[in-house]
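One example copied in:
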Amino acid sequence: MNRGPLGTIRGWLIATQDGLADLDDELVASLVQETSFLEHLVDDLRDLALADAGMLRLERVEIDATELLRHVAAAHGSRVDVRIREGMLVEADPVRLRQIIGNPETSGLV
């Protein structure tokens, strides 16, 4: 039995089709949430495939690392001891940096 987002969506649609569930606003909202989760998963898998193939595009811009470090320190609380120096500029892809910071377990940061 598939308990992932596709299984959830399929199960509710079959139950609705068989007359066992009503397609009300609450169910529709739940199914939309499941499809959103699935969409993010597919996007992440695409990015991983591109990275593995060496084809992941980076949009490097100059960003203020001070704000980035403040965000990391605030998000991780007492687990991170950061001494921030003002005016630290780095050239990086801000979207990819947010992905790394948002998922430190798979980025090798922890």
